[in-house]
Amino acid sequence: MARKRPPNKIHTSPERAGKQNLEGKVFPKDEDDLNGKILPVWEKGKENKQQYKGLWSDEEFANCIEEFFRYCWDTNLKPTQPLLQLWLGVTRVQFWNWKTKPEYGDKFNILNDALAVMESYLQGQIEKYPTGSIFLLKSSYGHAETQNVNITGSTNAEDVAEAIKKLGLDKTE
Question: Is-above-0.70 flag for pTM?
């Protein structure tokens, strides 16, 4: 049997749509103007995509990354890999290739130096922001929590043979 939905008491219409429906609802404030800091990064990426199309000389590439760090410093914006990718105006795949494939030569080296700066920044912020910094180090830089367990025992060949026999593993069919 199909369930009947109770009728709406108020019909919606273009006249009733809009700001008045949001009364009493508050959106979180962007007190640090994070959106205002990220928008220029995106705009710079569009410019870089038009100008370089990912084909920088090594010097231009290094200068562009330095410009990114200066922008982050000036605006008090945390430098992250996604922001750098946006700044460069390249795809995630191209960024990954430069990051992981040594055959890209100096771009590989330049980008990995930049990533080391970002990683150092996060490590330096661990005491101040432990949860966020640890998450970013794990997700972006391959850090992992590990635990080693060493098990030692003294088992002789007769005990092993007896255990195999008890389990019925000694029979061949």
Answer: no
